Amino acid sequence: MIQIDIQKKLNGIKSDMSLDVKLNIAHNEFLALSGKSGSGKTTFLRVLAGLEEAEGKIVVDGQVWLDENYSLSIQKRKIGFVFQNASLFLNMSIEENLLFVKDDKELVKELLEITELSSLAKRYPQTLSGGQQQRVNLCRAMMNKPKLLLMDEPFSALDPLMRLKLQNEILILHKKFQTTTIMVSHDLSEIYHLSSRMVVIEDGKVIEDGKSQNILVKQEQKEGISFDGKIIDIKENNNEYFVVISIGQQLVEITMNEKEVQKFRCYEIVKVKSRSFSLIIEKK
Amino acid sequence: MNNFTLDLAPFLLSFKLATLTTFILFLVSVPLAWYLSQTKSRLKPYLEAFTALPLVLPPSVLGFYILWALSQNSIIGKFFYDTFDIELVFNFKGLVIASCFYSLPFMVQPLQNGFESLNKNMIEASYISGKTQLQTIMKVALPNIKPALLTALIVTFAHTVGEFGVVLMVGGSIPEETKVASVAIYEFVEVMDYESAHIYSAIMIILSFLVLLSVYLFNHKQKFKRAYI
Question: Which residues of B touch A81 (CB under 8 A)?
Answer without folding.
Answer: 124-125, 128
